[in-house]
Amino acid sequence: MTAAFHDRREAGQRLADALASQNLTHVVVLALPRGGVPVAAPVARALGAPLDLLLVRKIGAPGQPELAVAAVAEGTDPALVYDDETMALTGASLQYVKRELPAHLQEIERRRTLYLKGRPPIPLAGKTAVLVDDGIATGTTVRAALMALRLRGPARVILAVPVASQEALRALRPEVDAVVCLETPSWFGAVGAHYRHFPSVSDDEVVALMEEQPWAH
């Protein structure tokens, strides 16, 4: 299989081109850190829109931290979603998720303080919210993000990703007003398999990208 994208930045530029043709107005771009931020930065720049973050943490299965059994998104009343199938397969209980939750909420708070230096979330009421990530495998974290997003009252929600599994996208479509996805391969695997260069994104990179935003100064 040939990777569809060179890296996150190139994927973001291609995603920006696809979104620019839609004549969107009153846009706020929201990235899912950390991997979604290098994708979202070119999108925000091309649309002339502010870039904000929506912080989500996946809660991994016992002994398999990369396999999401649930996800929690920031908010006054944090949005928590469960992946019932993965929970059943891994033996993760509701009690397990609830035990794990405080550490993830603490990490969300740490990241918001670090990445945004105390800046409040951009108001979304009446806006077109464009939610960006670097790809969607199972959709658990994106589902939590969308739940949190809806509570903030945007007029429209657009899910924009370079690549997603067909199954995840099918499940998420009813939860948004529109989807912009460049690649939906029949075989998915992991998000990183669709990029030639897919390093981990560091806290420092996120901070640097957010500090490039016009409103950050």
Automatic annotation (TrEMBL):
Domain of life: Bacteria
CDD domains assigned: PRTases_typeI
Residue span(s) of domain Phosphoribosyltransferase: 14-190
Gene Ontology MF terms in the entry: glycosyltransferase activity
Transmembrane region(s): none
Keywords for the protein's UniProt record, in alphabetical order: Glycosyltransferase, Transferase
Classification via SUPFAM superfamilies: PRTase-like (SSF53271)
Gene3D superfamilies named among the record's database cross-references: 3.40.50.2020, PRTase-like
Protein name: Phosphoribosyltransferase
The species this protein was found in: Ideonella dechloratans
